Amino acid sequence: MGASQRCRSSTKPPSCRTVWLLSMIMTTYACPKTCHCTDRNGMVVQCTSRNLENIPSNLPKDTVVLLLSSNRIRHIPKEVFTDLHRLRELDLSHNAIESVEAGAFQGISEGLRTLDLSNNHLSSLPKDTFTKLYARIRLSHNPWHCECSLQEVLRELRLDPETVNEVSCYTSVQEEYVGQPVIQVLDSGINFCNFHHKTTDVAMFVAMFCWFSMVTAYIIYYIKHNQEDARRHMEYLKSLPSTSHISKDYDTASSVF
Question: What SUPFAM superfamilies does the record tag this protein with (predicted)?
Fold first, then answer.
């Protein structure tokens, strides 16, 4: 039996147990090649300014601080941090992030204390992006589109008080709010969800009006068409010989014979 087969057996010899233990340690504490790791009662993983386009997949499981700012990351997939149960601080600022999947922070949501998504390309977020997330969040300097779904997302968050007024409407369902801080707009009593409902109601009204117009046009056409047929039928009946004329011709013919 070879060494690899002996290590796969249920009863591992001491050498195999050592190899297995070392592999587990490496899995737990290994640092990605593009990053720098420092142990400070948990791993601080420094991956800032490394031209990363994706989040490293081999992060140490005891990571407590993960710094990924100033890279070229565009997308945060679902459950990408799920093994980092000790993570307390996550910095994703100054990237090119355009989308975050629902469940992206699953597995770390309850322990995370600081999340920085500032200075990215985010305009909207799925409603369940930050479910059970208690962290203080920075969302400033993103091109936010102010509408109902963004309002519902922000309602559940603890926004960083130092940057909350820098979370502004880049575009909006109402142009008058473009350039204004989102929280100030919402605090003034504006409800973007009402605009959504009004827009839906207007669209429904327009659709119903078009449908009613088509039905009315069809009825008018149907009536006019029937009137034309009726007129032609009357003209045809008028063109036929009358009954009295036919009777006189018959009597004349009978007297001759």
Answer: L domain-like (SSF52058)
Of 153, 148, 162, 234, whose CA–CA distance to 197 is shortest? Answer: 148
- Range of the structural domain that residue 198 is part of: 191-236
Residue 109 maps to a domain:
yes
Extract the tokens encoding 187: 């605090």
Distances in whole angstroms, Cα of residue 129 to Cα of each of 21, 153, 154, 169: 37, 8, 11, 19
Q: What angle do CA 59, 63, 68 make, to 5 degrees?
A: 65
Q: What residues have CB less than 8 Å from 10, skipping those under 6 apart?
A: none
pTM above 0.85, yes or no: no
- Please check whether residues 98 and 51 belong to one and the same domain: yes
Within-domain flag for 8: no
Whether 242 is in a domain gets the answer no
CB contact at 8 A, 88 and 64 = yes
Give residue-wise pLDDT tens across range 39-65.
999 999 999 999 999 999 899 999 999
DSSP, res 224:
H
